[in-house]
């Protein structure tokens, strides 16, 4: 039930959903004052949520700091959280999303021998489409690319971050030699992830955040200040989802 409700609320937390609701209220209401203010709020919302600089400054306050390859210690295993891909049912193959940077960075660390093994965590976070089985499908793809199967561990049951941590802990009980763990996930997702994994009993855990929206240096371009960017709607949805997710997990005792 929690999983289903989380998917429903994921729609409600999208800024474009708020704006659509405001526009509908402005269109259908017969109260002139309400019509005027909901229309104004819709216009303000569109300008606010499509401004790149505003979004990036909010993201900067939440994202976990990035770490250079040269600053990473050696770890026994990199745990890569799912949510990286969609499954193209027509072409029958994985299609990477922005979160695919998680696996890309883990592979880079593996290639540099910063991590001995890669663990891919998560099955399918979709509500209806079960064709995506992320961990298993990525493992098969990596084996085809030449990575030894013995260096790839999977956890194939979990559907959300809390389950990622709990189920990963169970799987790693069969690998007692893998004591030093590096958690790899998106920078916006890292705070909730670290909290879940620590709650699940992971110790001596490091982190390596990926697909950052921001960096230490601000280098905004002139158009980012003034020209609306519709893609920021989606990015705001990701950020707000993490804020609400962290708060919900705290209330439920997951972190």
Please, could you describe this protein's structure?
- The chain is of the alpha/beta class.
- 49% of the residues lie in helices and 15% in strands.
- It has ten helices and seven strands.
- The strands form two sheets. A five-stranded parallel sheet has the order 5-4-1-6-7, sandwiched between helices. Strands 2-3 form a two-stranded antiparallel sheet.
- α2 runs antiparallel to α3.
- The longest helix has 22 residues.
- The radius of gyration is 20 Å and the shape is elongated.
- The protein starts with a helix and ends with a helix.
- The mean pLDDT is 90.
Explain briefly what this protein structure is.
With 255 residues, the protein is α/β, with parallel strands linked by helices.
